[in-house]
Amino acid sequence: MKIATYNVNGINGRLNVLLRWLDEAAPDIVCLQELKAPQDNFPLKAINDAGYNAVWHGQKQWNGVAILARNMKIEEITRTLPGDDEDVQSRYIEALINGIVIACLYLPNGNPVPGPKFEYKLKWFDRLAERAAILLSLKVPVLLIGDYNVMPTELDVYKPEKWINDALFKPEIRKAFAAIVSQGWTDAIRTLYPDEKIYTFWDYFRNAYQRNAGLRIDHFLLSPQIASALHSGGVDRHVRGWEKTSDHAPVWIQIDKK
Questions:
Q1: Cβ contacts of 53 within 8 Å, gap of 6 or more
Q2: Residue 191, Cβ density class (10 Å: 0-12 exposed, 13-18 middle, ≥19 buried)
Q3: What angle do CA 181, 184, 185 make, to 5 degrees?
Q4: In the predicted model, is pLDDT for residue 139 greater than 70?
Q5: Backbone angles phi, psi at 102, to 5 degrees
Q6: Whose CA is closest to 146, among 4, 2, 1?
Q7: In the prediction, which pLDDT does 161 show?
């Protein structure tokens, strides 16, 4: 089973790119972030015509997450991250697909630092840690997938010295990510490539893609019940070079689901 995550940076404006990649890569399950579309403006027909079912949580102009599944039923569990009833940002959706719990997330950016956006990011991480612990306690296959807006180590960022004051690389944020992993989750891509520079995002400015000045901010965290089935994974880096593409590239893993 091939499972992927892709921050599309506007699903309607980049629909042709998404559909082209879906046709080329043929993932079984896909988590999408940054839909930037209201709930009633999700391109469901085009997604269905491509062979995928979908659940999504949209939001006008910003945010938005979705889960797609090819020829499989999706049973939505929740579309909010517990812990803050006043949080209206569409950044989390959770579903059951073929016996696997899929949590698709788009963690806040957090800039500028210091400030309310950074505090919101820290609190969101706390809520995610609480949810992650609950999901682990179920002792079922679970994947926490998406754009975490964090580079966990210096290996995950081009020229780390330039990012020391950025919310994506602040020690508090890296510590929050590490705390979730330490609950018993497996960082799939880093497990597969323990010593390699693997990037999933390249800014539109300063020829970042051409210079490979990237960041690894899109992650898969696997529960023990499915981590042992991890077979392979990678980044479809070439998609970042397509015309009118997102500043992220699709990231995928292959698991041997019995």
A1: 68, 69, 70, 72, 73, 74
A2: middle
A3: 55
A4: yes
A5: -110, 120
A6: 4
A7: 97
Domains and CATH numbers, the chain: 2-255 (3.60.10.10)
34 is in an annotated binding site: yes
> Each residue of 28-63: pLDDT tens digit?
999 999 999 999 999 999 999 999 999 999 999 899
Ligand-binding site membership of 57 (annotated): no
Q: How far apart are CA 170 and CA 157, in angstroms?
A: 12
Distance CA 24, CA 28 (A): 12
Q: Which residues pair with 222 in a beta bridge?
A: 143, 186
Residue 231 has pLDDT above 60, yes or no: yes
**pTM for the complete prediction?**
0.98
**Residues pairing with 2 in the sheet:** 254
- Is 23 one of the annotated binding-site residues? no
Using CA atoms, how far apart are residues 138 and 49, in angstroms rounded to an integer? 35
User: How sure is the predictor about 82, in pLDDT bands with cuts at 50, 70 and 90?
Assistant: very high
Amino acid 115: pLDDT: 98
Dist CA 3 CA 212 (whole Å): 24
Which pair of structure tokens corresponds to residue 111?
């800039």
Q: Token pair 């956006």 is at which residue?
A: 117
Q: Catalytic residues, which ones?
A: 106, 147, 248
As a whole number of angstroms, the distance between CA 9 and CA 248 comes to 8
Residues 6+ apart with CB under 8 A from 237: 199, 249
Q: Cα separation of 77 and 62, whole Å?
A: 23
Residue 147 in marked binding region: yes
Sign of CA dihedral 200, 238, 47, 10: positive
Nearest to 30 by CA among 71, 79, 88, 63: 71
